[in-house]
Amino acid sequence: MSVDAESREFCPLGRLGAGPAVSVWFCILALPLGFGLTVMVLHYIRRVDGPIVMMDVNAIPWRPAYYGLGSLLGYLLWGASVSIGAFAGSALWGIGRRRASMLLFAVASSSLLVLVDDMLMLHERLPRALELAIYLSYGLICIAILLAARRILLAHEPILLAAALGALASAVVVDLLFPFELRWSVIVEDTLKLCGQSLWLAYFARLAYRELRLAAGELGQTPHVGV
Known about the structure:
By secondary structure, the protein is an all-alpha fold. Helix content is 74%, strand content 0%. The chain has helices at residues 3-10, 22-44, 50-54, 69-94, 98-120, 128-148, 150-154, 158-177, 183-218. The longest helix is centred in the last third of the chain and has 36 residues, at 183-218. The protein is globular and about 55 Å long.
């Protein structure tokens, strides 16, 4: 296989070193430009305060810089899981490892779902019964992923995955059993949640690396970096 053919195989958007196609530019910029234009339109028809929507919450006057640092860290961890799952899933799909690819796409999708829920505080705004239904749906999604990809998951550090799910489940239990007025429960809940998010990211980042390394080895291009 020529170098140019290998470049197209591993970089389906175009040859390495070449400029991306117009469609690629559109895919990259559609979300940020679309969001910015939407906020601009809504701002000028006076439905929303555009600068407040766009700026960091800690830049709002009279708001201490340390507000929400735990939540911001959680957003970064979920976002990293989304990025790694989507990137590794796309790469594995392109070289025919469909089962591992679908698992990582499912991880990226579920992480994105929880990230949006956390950022917009969706389940916190719902009645208790609906909040329980949301938590139940997350549990069912996890069970579905575990059952569908059990061979891959059990072959790669299952204790790490069990620790991630256990920490996240413990955070949910604390949230449901202890009221917000008990300030210590908020710290305990969010600490457990951060532990679960970190373990979740670590598990699937290591799994993604393992699957990519196996795929590269089958193609005679095994990386020399260990993990």
